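Lecture 7 notes: from sequence to structure.

We start with a single chain of 229 residues. Read the sequence below before looking at the structure.
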Amino acid sequence: MKGPKAIIFAAGLWCVWICRNSMCINNEQMSIQRVSTNITNATESIMHAFPSLQSGHLERYIRWNNNNFDCNILNVDGSCLGTPTRAGFGGLIRNSAGYYFTGFSGFIPSSSDILQAELSAIYFGLSIAINLGFAPLACYSDSIHAITSIKEPCSKFHVYAVLIHEIQELLSHANVSLHHTLREGNQCADFLAKLGASSNDKLLTHSQPPDELRPLIRLDALGTLFLRD
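Now the structure, written as tokens:
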């Protein structure tokens, strides 16, 4: 075995051995989540210490909250599905350990524009989070186009100028920040965005995650590394 997978395997063996010693010798309790986090951190440390081992693939391994923000985390996404195309959006709010607080999804009638879907996801996500008092907050979107449209000066003639301005207002009046993530770190939001696009609800909140979403939330909380396509 060679490359990043070998590094993950070696880090896993080492961390499991350390865990075994801590439990047997020091009678220390060690959760699966903690062991997984230790493996992820050890893998990243080895990759940074020995860049020649990466074979140029460090950036190809992505995990949720890849920037390691120690605050509440909002993931959002937009989706366009089917023929004729239906646009939707969705997202969810968790703490930095991956504990689920709430989620949302929605359908945009008479639209097939992915940019509108991505911007709507950011707007509704920030609005819900701020209204529920979840700031400080780091918001992740996998749409570079949407993030650029928000962070750069926006022409008043832009088709979504009003929506972009409202997002900028939310960002300026609350302790929140907006960041890009790759889609492998945004799979839970992608699920909810597709749920929104396939429904007829303009905005629906999910106090509990849908059953099909729970395994994805669990993987994120464990710090699972996903291979970038």
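Strands lie at 61-62, 72-81, 86-94, 100-108, 137-141, 176-180, 204-206, 226-227. Keep this in mind for problem set 3.
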